[in-house]
Amino acid sequence: MTKTTDILDIQDIDFSDLCVLVVEDDEIMRLSLEDRLLIEGIPVRVACDLAGAHKQLAKGDIDLVVTDIRLPDGSGADLFYDISHHYPGMPVILMTAFSEVADAVTLVKAGALDYLAKPFDLQDFIKKIQRNLSRIQDHNLSADFLGLDGLGIPPGNGILGKSTSMRRIERLVVRLANVDSSVLITGESGVGKEVVASLLHHNSQRANKPFIKVNCAALPQNLIESELFGHEKGAFTGALQRHIGRFEQANTGTIFLDEIAEIPPETQVKLLRVLQEQVVDRVGGKQPIPLDVRIIAATQVELNEAVKDSRFRSDLYWRLNVIHVHIPALCDRREDILFLARMFVEQHAKKMGLPAKQLSGEVEAKLHSMAFPGNVRELRNILERAVALSDGPRIMAHDLMSLNEDAEELAPSSTLKESVACAERQAIHQALIHNDWVIGQAAEDLGISRKNLWEKMKRYEIEKE
Q: Which of 307, 326, 345 is the last residue of a domain?
């Protein structure tokens, strides 16, 4: 009786945004498991061998793997160890014949989630899958550090958004809680790479240790090594005392290297040594200093293209890209726009000491249709100004329109290149206005270097008004 009740309770949970991969070479068994999972409303992908399993995993939407131990081109053990290396924290359930239970037990001790001895009852199979999917779904991310100037977001599902892509990133954060592997976060400027990096740190075993954030694009080229690795007194002209670099400051914790592509080649060599040997050499120092630091890097640049063009070291790229997290542009996950907009309105109102405000239906419709070339950062800044300028308890269309009084409308263009250039000019102009034309702050908001911003201002003939 208890068993039936447990199943009914679990079946009340919606698993439609999760996906199970079943790897089984026996066609009848594979189809039976696939059909039963679909009947229970659980999305499923299937593969009959290791090669097929890797193709499915590469799509990036698998949450749980169920695999037979015996496969035509290898074994479930091989798959488990590959997953442990390339997809840390992903749960794996093994299916095995009774004679191979000892092998399955060994893999469970090595970190596999569980095993099922064949032949097994389909009801027991479904119960095990549902129970473990519910644990994946019922995570509780710590998010007290998020928001504006320390203003928190209630922890739980949907911290980053309601879209499937952002929920999957949240689940990946949960899986990486006890993993120290390097993480590379990619995505356009303003999508929230720093927010994801913060989630990774504050939900890890290093949560109570230092979290040092470095915008590599904002570091002076002549001082970048001193800033990252530190220097000894007298190491160069002006080095009047010892300086502890960012890596040493992050010792036992996490360092977040934003815009990693901006690091010059000569510094990339030294950064590679830090990753490989976990030691740092201060400029002018003679003794390597041991480190225990987890590295999270981020970039809006296609690093694989930078590697091809010899602008970024391939060995450093692979050291950083152990786990890859790509954050989609806001326009590609429109279901997140209103969720984030309402959250930002609440945060800004609290920060400004204003009564709670709401978005009018007309404003919500307009926000949902906007392009947002500046992504989440642009949405946040728009709503900060709207909250400050609105008079009543509701943000109306005229409050939103006032935001764009200094900005250009996207003019119809004959080519995609012209449209992109127009959007880029508008984003730069808005960032400069928002930061009172302070170039360094505007460049940081845009996620580019000062030099790059100056070049774009010159190209688009943007001058202070």
A: 326
Query: DSSP letters of 82-105?
Result: HHHHHSTT--EEEEEEGGGHHHHH
Same domain as 187, residue 130: no
d(CA 421, CA 418): 5
What mean pLDDT is predicted for residues 80-89? 81
| DSSP string over 188-212 | STTS-HHHHHHHHHHTSTTTTS-EE
Quick: pLDDT tens for 93-125: 999 886 678 888 888 888 888 888 888 889 989
Residue 154 lies in a domain: no
Range of the domain at 98: 2-137
Q: Tell me how far apart the alpha carbons of residues 427 and 372 are, in angstroms, rounded to a whole number.
A: 9
- b/e per residue 164-174 (b: at least 16 CB within 10 A): ebbbbbbbbbb
Domain shared by 30 and 133, yes or no:
yes
Burial class (CB in 10 A: 0-12, 13-18, 19+), 21: buried
End-to-end Cα spacing for the chain: 75
Q: Is 326 helix (H, G, I), strand (E, B) or coil?
A: strand
Question: For the chain, what is the domain count?
Answer: 3
